[in-house]
């Protein structure tokens, strides 16, 4: 039994590699935008959206590889009832960051493991991030440096990079901000014998 990561996220692959987790990365092969559109049409919460998408990714591959553990993940940035998609343009990234400035938003990271096509474990973790009320000049310079790299990041920042300049306080796990509730996942992988206890 091996561990398959049903993700194309560079951040998730890097976290698992750095933590010494043996895994095989594979694309989940789902139409995430269509699934997200259907789910958000129902007025779903950030928590339930992240959980549902993580389970969808894990289930799809688990049906192909029933003998393995398949990890699916999803991350949602939200402020109140507003859910932020990954910015499709520099202008959209600027609009999102201006909406988050001076506010405390949530990063919700969900992970689901499937085996034999069925969920056997899940964990959802939330980090709270207080973003400072930065100047327009700062925002322009930040996006000059970080666009388009942050186009693939929920929230429009890389916390391990210049994104740190956006924040005055973060409550919660650094790993959760990066897109994976890593420590609870490692606990489960030890229970299943994938990692040494
Ligand atoms: N390097 C970095 N990446 C971040 C940060 N915050 C969020 N992200 C990334 C992690 C995920 O790749 C992405 C969240 O989007 P999704 O959960 O939809 O995952 P993504 O589409 O990238 O990959 P996947 O659906 O798992 O194949 O944002 C950060 O602070 N630093």
List keywords for this structure.
197 residues; alpha/beta; Maf protein; seven-stranded mixed β-sheet; 7 helices; 38% helix; globular; binds 2'-deoxyguanosine-5'-triphosphate; ITPase-like_fam; cytoplasm
What is the CATH top level name? Alpha Beta
Q: How does the major sheet shape up?
A: 7 strands, mixed
Task: Give the percentage of residues in beta strands.
Answer: 25-35%
Low-pLDDT stretches? none
CATH architecture: Alpha-Beta Complex
What CATH calls the topology is Maf protein
Q: What is the arithmetic mean of pLDDT? A: 97
Terminus-to-terminus distance: 17 Å
Output the radius of gyration. Answer: 17 Å
Domain count: 1
What is the element string, with H for helices and E for strands? EHEHHEEHEEHEHH
- What's the overall geometry? globular
Structural class: alpha/beta
Number of helices: 7
Keywords: Cytoplasm, Hydrolase, Nucleotide metabolism
Protein name: Nucleoside triphosphate pyrophosphatase
EC number: 3.6.1.9
Cofactor: a divalent metal cation
Overall description:
The model has no long low-confidence stretch (mean pLDDT 97). The two termini are 17 Å apart. This protein has helices at residues 10-18, 32-41, 46-64, 90-100, 136-146, 174-178, 182-191, and strands at 3-6, 24-26, 69-79, 82-84, 104-115, 118-131, 167-171. The chain is globular, with a radius of gyration of 17 Å. The protein has a single domain (3-192), classed as Maf protein (Alpha-Beta Complex). The chain has 7 helices and 7 strands; from the N terminus they run βαβααββαββαβαα. Helices cover 38% and strands 26% of the residues. The protein has 197 residues and is an alpha/beta fold. A hairpin with a 2-residue loop joins strand 5 (104-115) and strand 6 (118-131). Strands 1, 2, 3, 4, 5, 6 and 7 form a 7-stranded mixed beta sheet that branches. The structure holds 2'-deoxyguanosine-5'-triphosphate (DGT). 2'-deoxyguanosine-5'-triphosphate (DGT) binds at residues 7-9, 11, 28, 32, 73-75, 152-155, 157-160, 163, 177-179. Its cofactor is a divalent metal cation. It is an enzyme of class 3 (hydrolase).
